[in-house]
């Protein structure tokens, strides 16, 4: 039955979501400029773009796993543990900054690889596996670091946190957007990305077409761990130190932004569809909303309340949209 | 004769397409009425309107000469419309009786469940269908055919005056289908009106009293007695023009070099799924059929060959070389082996992805460039000629496969193996739920593939299809091969031969 064959093509569906998010970003900007004193000040914009850089990475870390129909609750624990690892390499072993950062990314990737390995070979849903690894990684990190921060860092590392372009732009956002562009290319224009999306859309059909679904699931978990590590390093640069509690207990403070960006960005929780551009825009919107509401001094808990509501609303809207339309183009 | 069900001027549109445009249907009490048409003609939509799944934009529905409005499926079943969908809708771990009286179990919220009453009711309906089954058995232990009968019992237990069956024989062997038909005739004689959707003209001719043909969302014929049509007339009504029903018979495969090495060979193979001592061979350019009852283990054997399930003993040889295939990836890329799944929607295609993504999936790894980069245009230039050759009808190459008709989905699921250029292809139930025109086309395609040297192992429960295509037919029962028949394309003789052999084995 040729039900609802629309003439829209897939990039347009992504574009319309992007346009909607862009519109919301502009509206929110106008509203906050008017209601929240100091929102549009260069300094606030600078901190905003700095936080956005972090949130973009978190969103991408979650997005790549959601693309296969899984999720990663250990992003916070992995990110902080990897940053601590880089900190110790620099503080106690006097590693060069670049080498320490690369080592941290590899460390995060390795932790993610372990997540993926257990998911595939024990055939357990990533929810349980990463819930466990979140506690294990965070617990081990606290024991090994004795919950002490790393503050004796090279000057070059600390200098990174002070870079500020045009007075209002943090290079952290640019770095994150560049990483996002690489992931977009990977998903859209490599066989690896196509196989990741195929595995997420229908693991049975993908398997029977010769896709190694298990190794694709391990790939996205390793990638997620790497992105989380990058986020951990980024936050450490901002703080000028590696602090074990910088993502909250068990790294849980990162979970809400990590889920908000891909979900608002139209990534299907069941897998098979992931858009980088909209995930990046959604991370920007979330950062903007958080910053604006905090400036309006409506209280941290109300901000949490509002963001939680946005997440629920976004999920319900997507559900409603797919039920009503029942169509859409292929990926 | 009075009308049990009458539809007039039904219009139903979905965003962007008018599925039904003024369709009428009249089903008499105590008759078996065939609803036929090609894929996309509007049969499924009409069934959904009759059973309350969709609501029509225009038109009236009358049950027993009363105008009714179905707001949901429950409303339809209250008016005595029972339906047996193509897919099974039973709860596997529940017993037969529980499944039959399910609605009434839930009716009283806090009352304790009276199992003796449930079993008594269940038994009553099974007896009416002359089914000799223990009503306490879980549905998961039944064969496909038995499960189907349980669904019919459930539909009848709702005091159905109209019984709608959507392709009831799609997963049944002809033997099982005959048993079903006997029951349907009995029901008709008891006054039930039966509306049957089917693609199989043979069974319609032998079973039905009346017919309605749909084409492109309209009535190609109004409801009337089947006696007025011969098969050619029905086909003409469905297709809209004369259409050669007789397909080109396959020119018998002659093993030109009979001593040449088979492309695929199983030697005393046992699998972890329970196959024992399976030996078979398929030569280049040969079509070997694998026939058996549902549950005989044919699909499971196919999946074991392509590396999804382990082979525990015996030898698998590809082009004469003993191989161990660890996963589907190496089956496809190292041994050039492909599998067209019987479960098109779950395994054959990725419904939410585009035609392009589905057709190209097997060649991504081969086409990728430096840094694994791979553009759409590169894939398109490889698969587009195939999609054209297969005449895949879609809004664009980027349209989601979900929006294609069943026949076009099947073409896409085959296209990816043509793209991969596999030398050995296992095809599992290629024409389930596919209209005659696409089916004839697929048959031609399969024969052409064989002529070009592909070794084909064909699994089918459709006996005419099997006889038309296969060079040799292997019979499978209970995960063993029991017999081999050389196919001389004489349908009457071969089908009788197969049936007698399957029954002979059954009484062993």
From TrEMBL, chain A:
GO cellular component, one term: plasma membrane
TM region positions: 21-40, 60-86, 98-118, 124-144, 165-187, 217-237, 258-286, 292-317
InterPro entries in alphabetical order: ABC_transp_permease
One matching Pfam family: BPD_transp_2
Keywords linked to the UniProt accession: Cell inner membrane, Cell membrane, Membrane, Transmembrane, Transmembrane helix, Transport
Compartment(s) where it occurs, according to its Swiss-Prot or TrEMBL record: Cell membrane
Main subcellular location of this protein, as a coarse class: membrane
GO molecular function: transmembrane transporter activity
Entry keyword NAD: no
Presence of keyword Amino-acid biosynthesis: no
Topological relation to the membrane, as annotated: Multi-pass membrane protein
Function: Part of the ABC transporter complex LsrABCD involved in autoinducer 2 (AI-2) import. Probably responsible for the translocation of the substrate across the membrane.
Subunit structure: The complex is composed of two ATP-binding proteins (LsrA), two transmembrane proteins (LsrC and LsrD) and a solute-binding protein (LsrB).
UniProt cross-references to PANTHER family, sorted A to Z: ABC TRANSPORTER PERMEASE PROTEIN YPHD-RELATED-RELATED (PTHR32196), AUTOINDUCER 2 IMPORT SYSTEM PERMEASE PROTEIN LSRC (PTHR32196:SF29)
Name of the protein: Autoinducer 2 import system permease protein LsrC
TrEMBL record, chain B:
Cellular-component GO terms for this entry: plasma membrane
Molecular-function GO terms, alphabetical: ATP binding; ATP hydrolysis activity
First and last residue of the signal peptide: none
Subcellular location: Cell membrane
InterPro entries: AAA+_ATPase, ABC_carbohydrate_import_ATPase, ABC_transporter-like_ATP-bd, ABC_transporter-like_CS, P-loop_NTPase
One Pfam family linked to the record: ABC_tran
Keyword Cell membrane: yes
Highest taxon of source: Bacteria
Keywords carried by this UniProt record: ATP-binding, Cell membrane, Membrane, Nucleotide-binding, Repeat, Sugar transport, Translocase, Transport
Membrane topology per record: Peripheral membrane protein
Entry's family note: Belongs to the ABC transporter superfamily.
Name listed for the protein in its UniProt record: Monosaccharide ABC transporter ATP-binding protein (CUT2 family)
Organism of origin: Roseiarcus fermentans
């Amino acid at each position: 039955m040729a039900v609802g064959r629309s003439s829209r093509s897939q990039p347009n569906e992504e574009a319309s979501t992007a346009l909607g998010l862009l519109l919301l970003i502009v509206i929110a900007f106008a509203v906050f400029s008017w209601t929240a004193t100091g929102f549009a000040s260069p300094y606030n914009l600078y901190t905003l773009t700095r936080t956005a850089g972090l949130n973009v990475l978190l969103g991408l870390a979650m997005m790549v796993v959601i693309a296969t129909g899984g999720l990663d609750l250990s992003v916070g624990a992995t990110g902080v543990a990897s940053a601590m690892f880089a900190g110790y390499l620099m503080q106690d072993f006097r590693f060069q900054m670049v080498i320490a950062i690369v080592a941290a990314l590899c460390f995060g990737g390795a932790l993610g690889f372990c997540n993926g390995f257990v998911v595939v070979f024990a055939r357990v849903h990533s929810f349980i596996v990463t819930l466990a690894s979140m506690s294990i990684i965070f617990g081990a990190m606290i024991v090994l670091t004795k919950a002490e921060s790393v503050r004796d860092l090279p000057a070059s590392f600390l200098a990174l946190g002070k870079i500020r372009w045009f007075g209002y732009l943090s290079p952290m956002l640019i770095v994150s957007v560049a990483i996002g562009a690489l992931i977009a290319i990977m998903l859209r224009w490599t066989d690896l990305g196509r196989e990741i999306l195929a595995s997420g859309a229908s693991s049975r059909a993908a398997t029977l077409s010769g896709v190694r679904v298990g190794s694709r699931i391990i790939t996205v978990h390793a990638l997620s761990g790497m992105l989380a590590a990058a986020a951990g390093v980024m936050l450490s640069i901002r703080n000028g130190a590696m602090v074990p509690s910088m993502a909250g207990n068990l790294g849980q403070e990162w979970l809400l932004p990590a889920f908000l960006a891909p979900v608002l960005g139209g990534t299907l929780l069941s897998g098979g569809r992931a858009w980088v551009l909209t995930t990046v825009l959604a991370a920007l919107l979330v950062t903007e909303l958080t910053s604006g509401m905090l400036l309006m001094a409506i209280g941290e808990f109300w901000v949490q309340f509002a963001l939680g509501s946005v997440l629920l609303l976004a999920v319900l809207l997507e559900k409603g949209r797919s039920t009503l339309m029942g169509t859409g183009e292929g990926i | 004769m009075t009308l049990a069900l009458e539809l007039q001027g039904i219009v139903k549109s979905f965003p962007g397409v008018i599925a039904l445009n003024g369709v009428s249907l009249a089903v008499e009490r105590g008759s078996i009425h065939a609803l036929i048409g090609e894929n996309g003609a509007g049969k499924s939509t009409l069934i959904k309107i009759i059973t309350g799944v969709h609501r029509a934009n225009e038109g009236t529905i009358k049950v027993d000469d009363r105008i009714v409005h179905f707001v949901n499926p429950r409303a339809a079943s209250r008016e005595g419309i029972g339906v047996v969908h193509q897919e099974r809708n039973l709860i596997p771990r529940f017993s037969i009786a529980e499944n039959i009286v399910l609605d009434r179990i839930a009716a009283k919220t806090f009352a304790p469940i009276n199992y003796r009453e449930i079993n008594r009711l269940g038994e009553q309906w099974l007896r009416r269908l002359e089914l000799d089954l223990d009503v306490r058995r879980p549905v998961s232990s039944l064969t496909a055919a038995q499960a189907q009968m349980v669904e019919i019992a459930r539909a009848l237990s709702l005091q159905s005056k109209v019984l709608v069956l959507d392709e009831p024989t799609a997963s049944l062997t002809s033997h099982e289908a005959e048993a079903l038909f006997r029951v349907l005739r009995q029901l008709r004689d008891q006054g039930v009106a039966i509306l049957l959707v089917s693609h199989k003209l043979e069974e319609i001719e032998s079973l039905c009293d009346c017919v309605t043909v749909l084409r492109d969302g309209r009535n190609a014929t109004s409801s009337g007695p089947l006696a007025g049509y011969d098969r050619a007339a029905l086909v003409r009504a469905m297709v809209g023009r004369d259409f050669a029903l007789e397909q080109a018979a396959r020119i018998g495969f002659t093993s030109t070099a009979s001593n040449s090495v088979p492309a695929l060979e199983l030697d005393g193979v046992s699998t972890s799924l329970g196959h024992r001592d399976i030996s078979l061979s398929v030569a280049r350019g040969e079509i070997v059929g694998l026939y058996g009852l549902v549950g005989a283990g044919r699909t499971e054997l196919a999946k074991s060959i392509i590396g999804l399930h382990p082979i525990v003993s015996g030898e698998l040889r590809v082009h004469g070389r003993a191989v161990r295939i660890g996963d589907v990836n190496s089956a496809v890329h190292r041994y050039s082996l492909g599998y067209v799944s019987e479960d098109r929607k779950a395994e054959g295609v990725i419904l939410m992805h585009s035609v392009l993504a589905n057709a190209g999936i097997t060649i991504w790894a081969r086409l990728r460039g430096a840094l694994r980069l791979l553009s759409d245009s590169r894939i398109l230039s490889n698969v587009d000629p195939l999609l054209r050759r297969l005449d895949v009808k879609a809004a664009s190459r980027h349209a989601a496969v979900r929006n294609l008709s069943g026949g076009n989905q099947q073409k896409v699921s085959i296209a990816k193996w043509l793209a991969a250029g596999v030398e050995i292809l296992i095809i599992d139930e290629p024409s389930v739920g596919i209209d005659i025109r696409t089916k004839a086309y697929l048959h031609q395609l399969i024969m052409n593939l064989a002529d070009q040297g592909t070794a084909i192992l064909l699994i089918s429960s459709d006996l005419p299809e099997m006889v038309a295509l296969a060079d040799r037919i292997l019979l499978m029962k209970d995960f063993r091969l029991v017999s081999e028949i050389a196919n001389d394309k004489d349908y009457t003789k071969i089908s009788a031969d197969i049936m007698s052999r399957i029954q002979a084995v059954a009484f062993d």
